[in-house]
Each structure stands twice: as structure tokens, then as C-alpha cells.
Amino acid sequence: MTFGLDYPQKATYWERSVDDAYGGYSYGTPEIIDVRWEEREEEVVSGGGELVRSHAVVWSQNRLLEGGYLFLGETTETDPTKVVDVNGKEVAYPIRRIRSIPSLDANEFENVSFL
């Protein structure tokens, strides 16, 4: 059974790997995935328990992790914090909350990421 949602867009996902010993993190190899990306603001409780405002909601059948990054589009950049638009604004966003919704038979999951 599938959820019946289309995943018409491509996004790049970086999994957060390890603490880099300088207060930051290193990230895994960028992975191109199929998503449905919707720009909308929504208040959610982050994994750390704080109320945050997300600016995008992203659906995927891939299991993503909080702390990872998503970028709408395809890139081979290995550091998501260096993905910028023409004005120098960062356009890869950290995943602040994940919700996994099982199908009726629990064989598949729809994963919703709040950025």
C-alpha cells in the first residue's frame, strides 16, 4: 500500500554525522531524494522540546533524521551550510522535527520533516 502522495520534487539530504570538536557537526554524503516540499509556517515542538516555527514541511518515504539538512534541488556540495543562493543566503535548512506516519498495515511510513 502506498500513501497515494506524489513526490514530484528532488531534494538533497545530508545526515548529521558527528560533532566536529569545534561546536559544529560534520555531515554525510549528500543524497538526492524524492520529496513533496511545501513552503508554509507552522509551530512545532522540536526534538529538544522547544517551540519553534518551521518555514517548510517536507514529505518523503525516506527515513530522515533530526539535525540533518534538506535543500530543495540537487547539489553535490558536501557541506549543507555552504549551499547559498545568489544573495549569499543559506538555502539548505536543518530538520527541526520529524513525524513518521505508518500506513494502515504498518509496512510503509510517510515521513514528515519540519524545517
Distance between the termini: 27 Å
Structural class by helix and strand composition: mainly beta
| Biggest pleated sheet | 7 strands, antiparallel
Helicity, as a percent range: under 10%
Q: Total strand count, please?
A: 9
Radius of gyration over all CA atoms, rounded: 14 Å
Sheet with most strands: strand arrangement = 7-6-1-4-5-9-8
Number of self-contained structural domains:
1
Total of DSSP H or I helical runs spanning 4+ residues? 0
Give the CA-based shape. globular
Measured by DSSP, the beta-strand proportion falls in over 45%
Average pLDDT works out at: 90
Question: Can you walk through the features of this model?
Answer:
With 115 residues, the chain is mainly beta. It has one domain (9-114). It is 0% helix and 50% strand. The protein contains no helices and 9 strands. The strands form 2 sheets. Strands 7-6-1-4-5-9-8 form a 7-stranded antiparallel beta sheet, with no helix packed on it. A two-stranded antiparallel sheet has the order 2-3. β2 (16-19) and β3 form a beta hairpin. It is globular. The mean pLDDT is 90.
Set out the fold topology.
Blueprint lengths: L8 E6 L1 E4 L5 E3 L3 E15 L5 E10 L8 E4 L19 E3 L2 E6 L6 E6 L1
Antiparallel strand pairs: 1-4, 1-6, 2-3, 4-5, 5-9, 6-7, 8-9
Brief descriptors of the model:
about 120 residues, mainly beta, about 0% helix, two-stranded antiparallel sheet, 7-stranded antiparallel beta sheet, globular
